[in-house]
Amino acid sequence: MTMLEGRTGSWEVVIGLEVHAQVISNAKLFSGASTAFGAEPNSQVSIVDAAMPGMLPVVNERCLEQAVRTGLALGAKINLHSVFARKNYFYPDLPQGYQISQFEEPIVGEGEVLVDMEDGVTKTVGIERLHLEQDAGKSLHDQSPAKSFIDLNRSGVSLMEIVSKPDMRSAEEASAYVSKLRSILRYIGSCDGNMQEGSLRCDANVSVRKPGDELGTRCEIKNVNSLRFLRQAIEYEAARQVEIIEDGGTINQETRLYDSGKGETRSMRSKEEAHDYRYFPDPDLLPITLTPEFVETQRAALPELPDEKKNRFIADYGLSIYDAGVLVAERDTADFFESVANGRDAKIVANWVISELFGRLNKAGKDINDSPVSAHSLGGLIDLIADDTISGSIAKKVFDDMFETGKEAAIIVKEQGLEQVTDTGAIEGIIDQVIADNPDKVAEYRGGKDKLFGFFVGQTMRASQGKANPGMVNDLLRKKLDG
Amino acid sequence: MSSELTGLTLATARDGLAKGDFTSVELTQAHVAAVEAVRPLNAYITETPEKALEMAAESDKRIAAGKAGAMEGLPIAIKDLFCTKGVLTTAGSHILDGFHPTYESTVTANLFGAGAVMLGKVNLDEFAMGSANMTSYYGAVENPWKRKDDKKTKLVPGGSSGGSAAAVAARAALAATGTDTGGSIRQPASFTGIVGLKPTYGRCSRWGTVAFASSLDQAGPMTRSVRDAAIMLGAMAGFDPKDSTSMDKPVPNFEAALDGGVKGMRIGIPREYRMDGMPAEIEKLWQQGIGWLKGAGATIVDIDLPHTKYALAAYYIVAPAEASSNLARYDGVRYGLRVPGQTLQEMYENTRAEGFGREVKRRVLIGTYVLSAGYYDAYYLKAQKVRSRIAGDFRDAFDHVDAILAPTAPNAAFGQGENMDDPIAMYLNDVFTVPASLAGLPAISVPAGLSAEGLPLGLQIIGRPFDEETVLRAARSLEDAADFDTKPDFIAGR
After folding, report:
1. B79 carries an active-site annotation
2. Helix (H) / strand (E) containing B77
């Protein structure tokens, strides 16, 4: 268990997360307005979103489906009866003066997420609940010195709030949990997981305690929008709390904000200043009633989930747990791998995808969907190695060219004449020449200096411009030198 | 000619238009004049004569083409709680200053789609909160009726649909839309000697109607006959996918349901509606109504609605709770009044302090209080429990009866300024109307007689959910027997 070392001993950090995930749907949760990101301010606002007098919400069935699908993917209980409630508070980017959310009766109950840590340990993080709610608009404070402007494009967009249990014990666990959650959401297509655009944001509840003690007083850090900031915020906050307690102080329950510029959290409002949201069931909406058949239909239509896929990759392709985990994190990557692995040596394919392709993609800042090398092309390259057309080392150079130009491996090999030389006569010719050019080395080798064998291999390969089949070079050299 | 035209009912005007006795433009011109003549009552907030005449001209074309709708060419008033596209919509509140909706409420769209002509927007208690039409930012509405021995005292028309009631009673509209949350159609109908029907919750769409209490608000017709109420309800009602609480049920031909009488009908008389201190004339009127229905062949059955005594208290928790949330959107940010301040908080405070009247503020405060942490269970949740008990009382009663007869209000119209220092006394006006509202049931008020002071008094028929047909049939029977034909003191243009 990860502990935080303080002056008075070890501290356990306890973390629970509330993740807000924007639902993938064409329209908002209760209005027909579009949800596309990046549109002109206030261009995607219906009269419902602007809370004009007499406007009424009508729930978007697609959002209910997405919440149920997500609940099922988290192995959670689906509540056949749930209720939308109003959360009342005033803010200019909240046109109704209340957010329609779910309070006492959410659509999804308890579930769990398995999180693989780098040390190979699998951690189970409990899900407390998942509920649907409206997003607020955005206040723009930088458009005028004296005024604030409001952009309501996001107002009414459907969010899933996924609340974990306080099951995480380090910043790394929290970050790994969000990654895994994001992976699941992206697999089933209920959220695009884009943290930069704000499609996925989280609030972290952090407290510290001496191992075995009761839970400490928690602080909630609001609206963290990257995994790095999440880790930094948790680490800063835990250290801050330990310091206060070790200095004899107590933690005030409060809401804090992470300032990524300064790398610190600071107080937003204390518990005393906390809003009384006056939740009550929204009288404009009937309770949501789902049938077991509806839930089963959603369940049956779920794609293979990351954990299932990982287990299958291990069982069917003989991959290591680590490789399988890396390959299934993104559904597109897993699909890419499977497409290449089909009919080929899966371990070799996994190695190419993880070490060679991912490395180059990362460097180029691209993701698998804009990879210049298609699954089909990578398969072609691996086939050329398998049938001895090119050697492994030549293949890496060919792959560089493929990545650069998008050309097929076979064409590059042909254009540049990189086919492996497997003609015994031709290789023998090169070897004869190398032996003839290095009579003293030959004498030393034959005199017992075995290590020089590598020298002859290198010379032969170089003379063949790397194209000679390394296995044949080895065999023939031994024959000529030893024989 | 013109007072003959304004004295028609929807049904007789419809028939006259069909026969070509007059045109909609003529009918509308007569009403436009009546709207001007009725100004002393302050019934209209906004008059729309030009729009009315344009609509009438279009109606005449459709009538000529044989394409008349159910309300074709009939001039009506619209309670200023319904959003009307391009026409100032105030809800009787300062806070909606200058608000011209870009959309048409479903109910008005339905009415206009059926050919109705809009004369203007009529006054109401601010955000429909009131029982006397004394809380409107646009001033009090005066009842066209006067006490027989006191022609000086100005009387209230009831509320909140006071402008609708006064306009219809004074012949300044053939009919008007109303909305009823706890009695806002029925009580003013009773006070002004007209018919007011609150349909089943979910019968008419709430989309585009400024919300007071969402789980109670229901639009309905205010007319001068039961037949007119049937005609107009048919044009207003219908499933609306834009309102999640509107019911997907076919709209019956209500007018066709009027005939048949009450023979064999079982009419329930709730014991609990006999309240301490109820004026003898109300009791007498009620007995009269019982006699009429009995005489028409109905069976009278005593019933129990045991939770009635808690209804008013529950209503004055649930309605303000919902209102406190519904009115949060009036914040000065996007439309209506904005009173600037140094900070955002100040702007909110200034805008809402100046924009809302006393009664609205009182209810927002009550509503906020009953939803607050620590009080929610004791007030709001308890009130909701009472509400389901009350609905249960009615369900049980309707196992034995087809409709219920009760007084509409515990008194006749009172003077402007009376009951103003005691909100509870004002709230007691709703004591007979609130239970049906809480249970979402259809209920109608029919003018049935006069008080000792010579003021109209209504009787109320309450029915099963979505059984407006039985309600209308029983009301028709009462109307026949009562033969109420006394006119108010003030009639437009006379």
Report:
1. yes
2. strand B75-79
